[in-house]
Amino acid sequence: MEDKLITYGGQAVIEGVMMRGRKVYALAVRAPDGQIVTRVAPLSGIYRSRLTRIPLLRGLVLLWDALGLGLGALRDAANLQMPAGEKLEGAALYVTFGLALTIAVLIFVLLPAGGGWLTERYLSWNAWWSNLIEGVLRLLLLIGYLWVVGFWPDVRRVLAYHGAEHKTINAWEDGAEMRPAVVARYSCQHPRCGTAFLLSVAVIAFLVFALLGPLPVIWRMLTRLLLIPLVAGLAYEYIRWTAAHLYSPLVRLLAAPNLALQSLTTREPDESMLEVAIAAFQAMRAGEEQ
Q: Could you state, in order of their start, the residue ranges of all structural domains in the chain?
């Protein structure tokens, strides 16, 4: 029963799922020929270091490592789908990722900050209201983006694999048999999902930035960038806390928006997708036992 205290995680990739344990991670992808290809590799030692016991700091360390791990899983999954002799790697991969990250910061961090400053500067609203406008704008941009990309066919398949990942972990945590027909009965929602983290970041950012009061536009932009690590660390601790206290009705109420937002980032998977998610989970578990 002690094994059930382990908090496994994962990520959807192109035609596949990555599952992360305590010591290893496993990637399972449906190759173009229809076969499931699996790969198991050890995790960085950071997951077992003392840094993971320090509040706030552990969130930043684990999020940074998860970012690298997720990028590698996406690369490997994409390369399996590409024609022989073609690969996404090296400078092209990091330039693409860097560009995507820059655009995300501009849209979800700096654009709302600019909108909040404009209301304060030209509408003579006080700092509290301008920060509220900034927070609402950031939240609407996040929800709008998730809603729009969900219509793209390729993205919808990734979201379905995301649902398969959640169903598989939910089934295991409930002690269910790891078969597609059984796993399919479980929810696509999970309290430790990265979607919950994104929503928590948006809400906590509003609370943190509201404490700063009125600022010139340059300082407003700089503080939003410089405080990203603090906001991310607080959001990580909040998600960790809510996931550990879902037995409380109050905590379940607090977590409800996080779970509801997952309706935009997951889709119901088919049986073939569940097979891939289960294969990734079982490969990871086998690697943990070696």
A: 2-289
